[in-house]
Amino acid sequence: MSDGFDWPALIRAGLQGLGLTPDAFWALTPAELQLMLGAGGSGTAPLLSEGLEALMAAYPDKQKDHDHG
């Protein structure tokens, strides 16, 4: 059964690529390993509901003209 992780690649990246000891590798959280590998982090915070509301207020959808006459 596959759990979606390429464990050999992750272990190789941690031990060989990052030079971690096995103890240090297995002590990392997935988020810490992801950050160390430089994956997924753009440095920007996620867009939360208040940010979405601010964007919607600043750039409202344009109303279509329904008068075809």
Provide a brief overview of the structure:
The protein is built from 4 helices and no strands.
Overview of the molecule:
The protein is an all-alpha fold and 69 residues long. The chain contains four helices and no strands. It is elongated, with a radius of gyration of 22 Å. It starts with 6 loop residues before the first helix and ends in an 11-residue tail after the last helix.
Features:
single chain, 69 residues, mainly alpha, 0% strand, elongated
- Based on Cα principal axes, name the global outline: elongated
pLDDT averaged over residues:
81
Uncertain residue ranges: none
Helical residue percent?
Answer: 40-55%
Indicate the structural class: mainly alpha
Share of β-strand residues: under 5%
Report the radius of gyration as a whole number of Å: 22 Å
Topology:
Blueprint: H1 7-17, H2 22-27, H3 30-37, H4 49-58
